[in-house]
Amino acid sequence: MDDVLAPKPGMLRRLIAFPLTLMIIEFFAVAIGASLLTALFRRFFVKDTPGYFLGGLSVAVLAIVIYLAARRWIERIANDELPLPLLPRELPLGLLIGAGLFTLMTGVVALMGGIVVERVNGMGALWGMLAMAVTSGTIEEIMFRGVLLRHLEALLGTWAALAITSALFGLAHLTNPGASLFAAFAIAMEAGILLGAAYLWKRRLWIPIGIHAAWNFTQGWVFSVPVSGGKAPEGWLITSRNGPEWLTGGAFGLEASVIAMLVATVAGLLLLLRVAKQGGIRPPMWVKTAPEPITYH
């Protein structure tokens, strides 16, 4: 009876609550807030110091706060995507998956002669890599999975949303140093599908954040491989890559390796199969689903 008597929201409220509007507002709110704080902490903290990592961690926390504030005050929904009680369980699981997949892929490339460990470097650029991992893992997962995937799914359904966000994630890396069309395609396949499926699995962000952060940290610090292009960092193990680009990934790094694409994409598809089996695939907004039958007790 309360639902029948409740007043309908006004035109402005309906416009704001439309998925496309929410997607634009939240995407730019997180992007602008994180960018401003990143520029600020880089002015005051020296790279590769504990303070630099704390600055990166503060940026990640700010992105979470902005996102949760938007969900609470604009969408008017509770925090069901980043609940603190589940952080100790789900974030380590994501970290384990991300580090494990990249290590597995690197081991395959090593067996094929594509990468060799030259020496142990010790701590290397630990703090800088930690800062990069926590910021990229948190901000990009909030923007691409929490915002884009979630709202596009509400509009177009799960399959279309996953395809679009995977493509956008690949295109976003196309401007990186050493990028190529194949590198962007590989990122779209291996990361877009895996991270999208990881979000859809629990409908929460801790696991994809952990996967993303650990993947980047493992390649940058553990194996000293370029993270999505650019200069190779000096991490724990100094490595050299030799062989064809399809194996080593070339200047972009191992993410552009065919081996990486196969390993991560297969993992993503297996996880996506689990999502489908548990009923996690949703139709577009224009497809009406049959109401659940009323049961009497």
Automatic annotation (TrEMBL):
UniProt KW keywords: Membrane, Transmembrane, Transmembrane helix
A molecular function GO annotation: endopeptidase activity
Gene Ontology BP term (one): CAAX-box protein maturation
Residues passing through the membrane, by range: 15-40, 52-70, 91-117, 123-142, 154-175, 181-201, 250-273
Pfam family, one: Rce1-like
Xref: InterPro entries: Rce1/LyrA-like_dom (IPR003675)
Domain CAAX prenyl protease 2/Lysostaphin resistance protein A-like positions: 125-217
This protein's name: CAAX prenyl protease 2/Lysostaphin resistance protein A-like domain-containing protein
